[in-house]
Amino acid sequence: MAGLEDLYREIILDHYRNPRNRGELEVPPAVQAVGFNPLCGDEVIIYVEVSDGVITDVSTGGQGCSISQSSASMMSTAVKGRRVAEVRRLVRAFKHMMSIHGTGIGGTGDDLDDDGDGGNGAAEVKLGDLEALRGVVKFPVRIKCATLSWNTLVQALDETFA
Amino acid sequence: MSDRLGTGARGDFPLLGREMRGRPIVYLDSAASSQKPRSVLDAMTNYYETINANVHRGAYEIAAEATEAMETARAEVARFVNAPSADEIVFTKNVTEAINLVARSWGGANLGPGDAVVITEMEHHANIVPWHIMADQLGFELRWIGVGADGQLDLGNLDRLLDGAKLLGVTAMSNVLGTLNPVRRLADAAHGAGALVLVDAAQYVPHLPTDVQALGADFLGFTGHKMCGPTGIGVLWAKAELLEAMPPFLGGGEMILDVRKDGFLPNRIPHKFEAGTPPIAEIVGLGAAVRYLDGLGMDRVREHEVSLTAYALRTLEERYGSDLAVHGPAEPACRGGVLSMSFRDIHPHDLSQVLDDRGVCVRAGHHCAKPLMRHLGVPATTRASLYVYNDTSDVDSLADALGAAGDFFAR
User: Fold this and answer.
1) Which CATH architecture does the domain made up of B7-30+297-409 adopt?
2) I need a labelling partner for B169 at 20 to 30 A (CA). Which of A18, A123, B346, B380 fits?
3) Which ipTM value was assigned to this complex?
């Protein structure tokens, strides 16, 4: 049985207490998407502004537990200023990490690994601080908390290019 | 307090013998689903091992025994809630199906544009969404009784809300606040206005002596798995004349007297509403659950829970004061043993995670009551709920675990 320290790493609690890129962006030019976790009622709002294939700004709102809020905060710092194609690879790598042995234990059919490489292509992507969320996998009911903002980011990107 | 309740009852429930991380499990989530006594598990196993066969068909001995076991359970359930007749007990999957049955069958035949259904802001989604669905289809109006600051229904404008209404749907006990609603008073008001009354008794029947006639209900739903019985079996009780007049809900085997190429003749009640092979073992298990609760005595169950709820409210107040809010009525006699808590600024998901680390099982979330959560202004709560096998040591473990969570997140 994993201990609480595996889940609540210091960097996670830091992002929870001091969330980065918190707030709203003007829509348009930004696009807004809302994600729900029906299990616990958490809601996350992601604003994303894309220009010339680059995420020029991102902002997060909503309410949730330390895992969902810190994951949103870390996600925002990880994607801001990066190319959309690169971000989509990062999302795949993150979701791959959030599945036990890459088999998608938390998978619900909304798995984003749709490039047919079984997540292998994601292995080269550097996750950096996001590695701190790896311990969440040991607590399967919390995986959805960690992936909520990432799924919502993808919704916002899909809408941007719809 | 009866010695058969609390610590005395624990030995009846095999699961409560489990240890979690070296400590005895502290199960405080009975409002979601109760644990099952050995007698219920034995009744179901015995059914499968000795009389398993399909019911209401087959001339052989064990088929007759299976039918007898099922119908005996129906009679026991009827007696448990003081229903005038076992024919008024319709077996469903759960309360959700019971309410959907009423919404589809009675609602479909009786509601239309210009009509209204009144429900309350503290309903479980099971008594909200079926009405949303049918309102979209049939064009009737859905009206809401609000919740006051004290966790009680705001009945100030009840007469206006009931004016022109055809049905009032209300929970007998809130699964979030623990509020015991004045069902009889509401039923009298509704009947005075010409409306029928549907009672969601999911949290009531397991915890208080229930008399459907004294409550003044027309429809009342409850579920087995919250009252020491198995999952997959619930009950809709309704007055016979209503069931007789209602069109069938699901169609299939069992619910017919005759089927021709040009139509069908429905079976008599309650079978008219029980299409297909029923969950026979679960019905037998529910019968055993009712016998178990009768053995404890529902008056004593209620006394035990009032006393334990009072202890819990007092303990939490003494230990955490204003750092911890328990939503709902403050007076134990006005509420059930459901304690929905907000603790400092710790999110319920995080709080329940630390509690789980200490073997304390509570529910975190919106409890399928999002309109009520919005009224309370919280995204979720952490809910501890008490039942026959809980005692003061469980409450102490909860209080200790809350302290540990407070320390953990204060780092």
Assistant:
1) Alpha-Beta Complex (3.90)
2) B380
3) 0.80
